[in-house]
Amino acid sequence: MKVKVAINGYGTIGKRVADAVSLQDDMEVVGVTKTKPDFEARMGAEKYGLYAAIPDRVKAFEDAGIEVKGTIEDLLEKADIVVDCSPGKVGAENKPLYEKAGVKAIFQGGEKAHVAEVSFSSLANYDDAVGKSFVRVVSCNTTGLARVLSILRDMYELRKVRATMIRRVVDPKEDKKGLVNGIMPDPVKLPSHHAEDVKTVLPDVNIVTTAFKVPTTLMHLHSIAVEIDGNVSVDDVISRFEEEPRIMLFSKEEGFTSTAKIIEFAREYRLRYDLFENAVWRESINFHDGELYITQAIHQEAIVVPENIDAIRAMFELADRQESMKKTNRTLGIV
Ligand code: NAP
Prior knowledge:
35% of the residues lie in helices and 24% in strands. By secondary structure, the chain is an alpha/beta fold. α1 (12-22) crosses α11, α7 crosses α8 (194-201) and α11 packs across α12.
């Protein structure tokens, strides 16, 4: 029996999670939702079957000539789990619908941690989500930090982490918002919320973060410094990163001089240039005066997709962490 998955919110994250679910042999997409009858709704209707996220919008889809199979409530009747990919904070408003329908739910990083029983990142705390009904997959930046720090935590005694996020201002499709010429401290009052978010999946890590938005849409960039007691072998860290499929090493030597070059590579590598892996610059990994330095880039539109698939497996106890990650990696081409 395949787990039946509804996607509430067929946007940037929703369409990618839907495609990833449809590549698995132990789960299937039973429908997706939109509120607006636009081109993405038409694509969702053709690919997965479309339902109205807001019940009184059914007529708007019909008027636009887009086939709509019912409302979110009709969709939830067919589902075992809903992956809520609605805009930040809307997921919490949707939660009573899921409770009423008696389905499990995954929320995204735009929601507050308390929307779910547990926050989730595969390498950090897969086991915490086993059997749960409400899980939140942490945000793109937090997923990027949590993966790297989970690996380092298993190798060394981490004393303190300092990380600065240089954030892409908006996603490529968001033509209504943006920062054209400037650097925006976000938040101005430091530290940023990212550290607290990392602690939802790695509670023992002592971390402080700052964040700034810059006028680019391609990727976020993280500058990370980790204070570590004792000696650190840069070669060991590089070897461990090489072994972990969800980390991809890039080298300036090979021409990867910026996020623009990483995305140029990804354009050839995968559909929608989705980079599910942390993009870590090999030469940036350096140990100096008790601190390990790492610079990485994060493709914000794609990075949480494998974690959503692993979260479904954990919640239905379909596989342990290793087995789930291996299967997700294989089906999504993460090597
Ligand atoms: P998005 O591209 O704006 O997509 C949101 C989708 O939700 C749209 O399809 C929208 O449909 C739909 N929607 C609007 N109101 C809804 C409602 N009341 N109920 C159900 N669906 C509704 O947003 P996104 O970037 O995918 O973000 C989704 C979540 O993932 C957020 O929590 C965000 O913080 C998180 N996240 C985003 C990124 C990223 O970089 N994009 C990375 C990691 C996590 P209409 O267009 O028809 O209104």
